[in-house]
Design a protein that fits this description.
Low-confidence stretches: none
Order of helices and strands: HHHHHHHHH
Number of helices: 9
Distance between the termini: 28 Å
CATH topology: Hypothetical protein af1432
Oligomer: single chain
Structural class: mainly alpha
Strand content: under 5%
Largest sheet: none
Mean pLDDT: 96
CATH superfamily: Hypothetical protein af1432
Number of strands: 0
Radius of gyration: 15 Å
Helix content: 55-70%
Number of domains: 1
CATH class: Mainly Alpha
CATH architecture: Orthogonal Bundle
Amino acid sequence: MLYTEKTKKALKLCFEAHKDQTDKSGLPYVFHPFHLAEQMETEETTVVALLHDVVEDTEYTLEDLAAMGFGEPVIKALGLLTHDDSTEYMDYVRAIKEDPIAKAVKLADLRHNSDLSRMDTVDEKVLKRREKYLKAMALLEQE
């Protein structure tokens, strides 16, 4: 992971925002964004990986994050990664494809969320969600 002033700020915010949340297997949720951030190569992708679910899953807004000084490319990518339920999932993915920061983070997110070894139970719902994620990865990887 890259350790810069902004990535350290994002690490702290990520931990604070997700500290009481767990994933579908009951593990601390914060391990997921930390895992994604470890795969990133730039300050911006690292920050976005750490914060990719903050707006969607907590009380923080894009405006809050902008006020914290994360910068326009980060805020734009986070906006794209925040899925609004009124937008069809594959349309959401198509929009992400146009932004290199959001695309890099979403690919890592989809790979991690498709890892069945993270699940305590693999049922039809999990397999269906994985199938959707595999289709999204294929769309993002198309030239």
